[in-house]
Amino acid sequence: MRVLLVVGWLLAAQLAQAAVAFAVETDVDRLLEFLIKEKVLTQEKATEFRADLAIKKQEEKQPTAVPDWVQNIKLKGDVRTRYEWDQNKGQADYNRARIMARLGLEGKINNKVKLGIGIATGSSSDPRTSYVTLGSNVGQASTTNTPDSAKNVVLNYAYGEYTLFKGLRLIGGKFPDTIWRPTDSFWDTDINPEGAGINFDYKLNSKVGLFWNELLNVLRNDARTDQQVFMSVTQPGVTIAINDNINLKSALAVNVFTNIKGATRFSTSASTNSVNTLTQYKYNYNSFQPSAELSIKEPFGGLVPYAALFGDYVYNFSLPSSATGKGGYDFGLKFGDAKVQDWKKWQTKIIYSKLGRDAWLDIFPDSSRYSGKTNDQAIEAQFDFGLGKNTSLTLDYYYARSLTKTSGADRAAAQVLQLDWNLKF
Asked: Is pTM, for the whole model, over 0.90?
């Protein structure tokens, strides 16, 4: 009985509220009609008033507006499936199916600050790849092969970025690499440094622009063993619009390592750098690294829409004069479409690289080329073809060989063939 009384009261309240609203609306209509009759308002002004009143009532029914910082959030991600054939140093061929998935969130929380958070498949023990192998859970919590096992997802990046003023950005946390690199030969694109960075861009005029990148990468931070290893990079650069179709971008990076000599070798090392008793690094890896890229729109009389020549050089200036394997370089050509983001878009890329044993630290090079080692020379050929908007196929082939002139497995060639289906949003 009490429930019926409560329901009745609620219904009566709703009816009363509706009646009041109807009465108010009726009174407004009567008032407008009276004002028109007395020639205080014209019919047109009365019509405008009714329209404004209707809009206001509709706005009052709308939910509270979403905050600006929520509206500025951008969600992005990609999925890649891969077939990979690997013939490493004369060993038995290795065929496997792999997959990679990444999901990222970026957003401006105000007009100065941006945040980024991303997750990806893979494992924390291998920063040079987010791919996981289907039919295997090796590298995860269990090291046994379990059919249809779930795959690990790890934190890929998490950072904050502060724009001090136009052109100057400060970044901290774990973030995508802030140093400009025309190729991934010396720095695998899956590596996200940890620490802090500064990026500065300044346009001198319509033809010339300057940029300056700084990176402090914390490689090891273990105060208990007093092994704190850091890498700092300073990279000034310039962009030049030679004409409407030709652009040049060039930079010089200076890489300086702190406490690397004598430090215990990193677990992600490819085991090619010279070491003391096979566990400690024998040398420092301070180096110069100039890079350049010349891009051309519609070269060869418009035969292709885009082409570019590019290259890097690295030289370890901290090695003793008696040491060998101080330098490395790569150079390449790409042509086709500048970006492969739609149906029938395509691009071909060819790179030759040569990297001395101690020219560069062996935790950074492209993991697909000679297993990410130094002391090698390699050719990479890649072809991308667009299947539709935001989906494409990539065919990538590597042929690499050790620079050491000895017989046996150390001199044998390593070949890798990868076929990827790329999907992104």
From this structure: no
